[in-house]
Amino acid sequence: MKQNNFLKNISLILSLITRRDRVILLGLLLATFLLTFIETFGVSIIMPFITLATNPDLIFNHKVSSFVYHYFHFKSTNQFMITFSILLICFYIFRAFYNIAYTYSLNRFVAKKYHYFSYSVFCKTIRQDYEKFSKKNLDVIRKNIVQESSNASHFLSSFLNIFSEISIMLLLYSLLLIISWKMTLVLTCLLALNVFLIIKGIGRVVGKQGEERSKTEGSFFKMLSQTLGNFKIVKLRAREEENFKVFEQLSLKRSRVQVLFQTFNSLPRNILETVGFCILVACVGYILFAYGNASAVLPIVSMYALALYRILPSVTKILDHYNTMIFMGKSVEQIYEALQEDEPQEGNEKIDFQKNILLRDIAFAYPDKKEVFSDFNLEIKKGEKIAFVGKSGAGKSTLIDLIIGILKPKRGKIYIDGIELNDNNIKSWRQKIGYIPQNIYLFDGSVGENIAFGSKMDKARLTEVAKMAKIYDFLQENEGFDTQVGDGGNSLSGGQRQRVGIARALYHNPDILVLDEATSALDVQTESAIMDEIYQIAKDKTLLVIAHRLSTVERCDRKIEMGTKNKGS
């Protein structure tokens, strides 16, 4: 990945967080500065401590130690050093607790960002127009909500950690410059050369692996959905072994990408530890050569050893986090793109339905397709039972989707009691509709949960709609509304699933009941029984029915024949 992409992704991730998050981020950066000073002080205090411990008489030769000794009236150098030791222990205990608190705050911030990214992508997806949503790849949406959101939060975590480690490293580096600028510059040149080679060599490979990861995981999620969603077909075609091979190939490829990333990510640590040890040995040799007396240079050697002990892990962590940011960069781009999509601004105006629905001069066409409707007009009076019949592709479901506000006409207007249907009142209109599709989706939960479908479960209302849908007796023979439906409703028969769908549609007492080929997959006897129940339930409601069998709609007040052009009234 190029440097400009790296900086671009940092800009993108910062643009995704809220103003409050930026304040928290600023607080974390300030906490990082404090951590930097604590870490630097923790290293720099070692040299004077060792110096005074090996030669207590030097206490009186240094201004600071001499002032402290006389100001607090120490009786002996031993008493001074014991107090110094206790304070140093207390400082390191404080340092440990501060590190823990800082790490907790950082991890909490990152975890909340994962929630924020995931939740934001989910909300953005749900708020989209149905027409736009229907073009989306569901596997990509799932991957963005689960995997890419997590990766984007780790990108942010690595960014904060890099800032922290750079701050610590620079302060320690400044300290070493004060002690011996010549030796520190030599150290800098050697480390800088290694870091440059690592970034150039490993960074490019990690960037490619990050792009490969994104592609591989997309294929992996797609394969899972296709196989698990078509389980019967897989079994009937006896192609389990082929599916095993495809899954194995994708899984191994996914694993290889992770292995390569983890391996390349560990290289900087191994290289720098080796180089650092060699540099430390060389530094000791240089100091001995320059000063001649080993005891005189012991504090300096100790200082450099401790500084390198802290600087080298910082450099390693910086490179690790840099590689992680490159690897996760594609995730940031995908989350950013997902959150930039336009969404309709829908209001909360109320709309009443007491008289009629009027479609006036409606025109509609799917993108890059011919018009399904042109100058189409229709009036539906409240309480009417209307059937929409015609061949497949004639526009029956599209017309229903326009009426219930899922699709928007390209031209023309829809009026409810003379009030134009628009973005301000569309929510109120949709709440008046109970929709029963051909394929009832039941999630793995109880019957009660599936009927309420995210709403609060009202036992009295559940009982009422279950009786209306003629499924109450079945539930009483089992575990009531706690009866489990299984994944996709596989624990229920086709008729039972349909009745749960009817109960769900009735739960909020809609004014309009829509059957979109709701019984076409059932046998004639079951379909007849369910339609009898629906006509009874909908006697005081407006009923819109799409069906292929004329027997299904024979009791409707009107039958509207849908043709290929759908012009006129």
UniProtKB/TrEMBL annotation:
Membrane topology summary: Multi-pass membrane protein
Keyword Nucleotide-binding in annotation: yes
Keyword presence, Transmembrane helix: yes
Sequence ranges assigned to domain ABC transporter in this UniProt record: 357-569
Protein name, entry field: Multidrug transporter
A Pfam family hit: ABC_membrane
Subcellular location(s) of the protein: Cell membrane
Residue stretches spanning the membrane: 23-50, 80-98, 159-179, 185-206
A cellular-component GO term for this protein: plasma membrane
Organism: Helicobacter anseris
Chain ranges of the ABC transmembrane type-1 domain: 26-325
Chief location: membrane
Gene Ontology MF term list: ABC-type transporter activity; ATP binding; ATP hydrolysis activity; ATPase-coupled lipid transmembrane transporter activity
InterPro entries registered for this protein in UniProt: AAA+_ATPase, ABC1_TM_dom, ABC1_TM_sf, ABC_transporter-like_ATP-bd, ABC_transporter-like_CS, P-loop_NTPase, Type_1_exporter
